[in-house]
Each structure stands twice: as structure tokens, then as C-alpha cells.
Amino acid sequence: AERFSPRVRALPSTIPFVGPEALERRLGRPFKARLGANESVFGPSPKAVSAMADAAALSWAYGDAEQLDLRQAISQKLGLTPDHIVAGEGIDGLLRDLVQAAMEPGDMAVTSLGAYPTFNYHVTAHGGALDFVPYGEDFRQDWPALVARAKVVRPKILYLTNPDNPTGSWHDAKAVEAVLRDVPEETLIVLDEAYADFAPAEALPETTRLAPNLLRFRTFSKAYGMAGVRVGFVFGEPDAIAQFGKVRNHFGLSRMAQAGALAALSDDDHLRKTVEKVAAGRKALAELARAKGLVPLASGTNFVAIDLGRDGTYARAVLDAVLRRGVFIRMPGAAPLDRMIRVSVGTPADIALFAEALDGALEEVN
Ligand code: PMP
After folding, report:
1. Which of 92, 171, 253 should be mutated for ligand 1, with most atoms under 8 A from CB?
2. What family does this chain come from, according to its entry (predicted)?
3. Which of 267, 296, 323 is a domain's end point?
4. How deeply is 183 buried, as exposed, middle or buried, from its count of CB atoms within 10 A (0-12, 13-18, 19+)?
5. Residue 239, CB half-sphere, CA atoms under 13 Å: how many?
6. Are 302 and 322 found together in one domain?
7. Is 91 near ligand 1, meaning CB less than 6 Å away?
8. Cα(147) to centroid(ligand 1), Å
9. pTM
10. Residues 62, 189: one domain?
11. Ligand 1 atom closest to Cα of 94?
């Protein structure tokens, strides 16, 4: 008899995500610039660092399973109450909890083909099935087509990312309203707002805009510069939020993570400065791409997708040549996104290293 579930044994691989450390081991040398995971090289608030150090001294003790201080601080920022919020081990951890809470093996979820791949990983690992809707010709998630598909498939979960990874594009708050109006009530709408802090105001509905089937996800991994700490949160109506409490890992959000996130929320100045630096870096990346005759996509995030204008084979060759020159970037997956590379904002020095690597790569490949 198999000790592990046959369904799990049949899954394609242990982990679909090849992070920069794994890539460095494969390439046999460290990266000079790390611009492939949409992290913030500008780092966490010094207040968060010091709070995490203090918490480390107390790390013999479990953190607060109710996360009350953190949930209170988040709810104040959002104009909600703590029962509208649950925090977890990044958006990824919470999305995993959601699949467990919402889906039975065999259930369906709908997502965009080439969107943030962690969605697929969770659903597949849980024995669910995915239905994919291609991106639009404008390289944005095709929300009308996703809604139309949801009406037919009646999935348990519909995944939307706003602003989007890997394209950086966004829809406005009116488009969110159209989704809420038209998606069947029994479908949970995941609105992944990981990049909200960088987004134009028009992209974001009021934080108090909730619905029984709407779950909005945010993270400390991007603008707060704390990807390695693993803290994110989801907000929604209390009944939906309460379902997470039944399945989540109760001590999963560490004492250090809770203390760090709480302190980070008290440092608006650091957040503002990071967002400003990111905006400047985004502009620099776009200009650099244009100067080489390439097309940067408009971005409401901390990265820029650059359309290389040919096909996936060409983009893959350019990507590999950039990686070999010591700069970690990524390529979005499926057509029509396969002609692009995706570059996270870094320091001006990082961006200069990328520019140099891209020059060399284009020379080699063209
Ligand atoms: N959602 C999207 C759309 C992302 O791009 C990312 C980060 N790559 C995440 C979620 C993961 O966020 P976290 O670090 O909070 O798990």
C-alpha cells in the first residue's frame, strides 16, 4: 500500500518555483543583481528590524495565535474591525488555506493562463481542477472573459490579480464592481492585491468595499520589503474570514513576523519612500527598454514587463543570456506573455547591471 496519497504521488514535481538560490546553484555562481522575484531591495523599515530583533529574544514563546495586535493595527488602516482580517504566512500561505477551506478534490477554479502560478499549484495539490482563460491582446487579464467563464463553469474560486503579476497591468475599481455584479454568488472571488501599495488609486476599490464572496489579499512582501519574513493578510466579510480560522496553522505566523509587521505599519515614512524609489526605478527600466527599441508595459507594480516583440524561443534565449551575465530576472509563461521578460525594480546600481547584461544578451542573441 502506498503510504502517501496516490493523488499527491502523481503530482508533477515537488515545487514548481525555481527561486534565485536554486538558479545560482544550477548556474554555479551568485547573481550580481536580484531582480526576478519582485522583492523590495530597499528593505524593511528599521522599526520593523528592531521589533523583530526584540521578538527574537522572546522566541522561546509561541506568537499570539489570535494575532490580535496585528489585526487591530491592520483593521485601523483599512477602516474595518479585526474580525474582517486574518493574517498568515504571506498571501501564498493564506491562498493555500483558502483552497483547503473552499474546495473539495474535483472542484474547479478559474484563473488566467500565464498568471501568478502559485494559484495553480495550490489547487492541483489539493486535487482540484483549473480552467484557464487567456490574457487579452492588451496583455491584461481578460476580466470579462473570466467572468463569462465563471458563469459557465461555476467554479469554487475565481482568481484575479490587481495589479497583475507578471504583466504589471491593472483594472480599475469599476471593473471590480462589474465582476462583483456578474460572478455567481457561490464563487469566491480572490482579489490578489499584492502590489496595491504601488498601484494607481483608480485600481483599488475602497478598502471598505466588501461582499460575501469577495476576499482581498495584501502582503508585507512587496512595498514593506519583508518577503523573507512571510506575512500577508486577507480581508473580507467576517463570516468568510472566520473560515480561515478553521484550517489555518494557528501558530504559523511567528512572533517575529507579527512584531515586524506591526512595527512596519507604524512607519508610513519608510513606505512612502519605498514607493517613491520604486516609481523612479520603474521609469528608469521603461526608459532603458525604449532606448533599445523594446516595449515596456505600463506597470502599477514594482516591476516592469518588457515586450521583446518576437516569440517565446527568442525571449527564452534573451532571458538565459541575461541570467548567465549574473542578473536574475524572469520570463512570464504562456502566450501571449511569452515574448516578454519581467524585471523587478532595484537600486540604480542594480538597474545599471541589468542594462549592461541586457545589452550583452541582445548582442549575443540577435
Ligand atoms: N500574489 C502575487 C500576485 C504575487 O506576485 C506574489 C509574490 N510574487 C504573491 C502573491 C506572494 O506574496 P507573499 O510573499 O505574501 O506570499
Report:
1. 92
2. Belongs to the class-II pyridoxal-phosphate-dependent aminotransferase family. Histidinol-phosphate aminotransferase subfamily.
3. 267
4. buried
5. 6
6. yes
7. yes
8. 23
9. 0.97
10. yes
11. 16
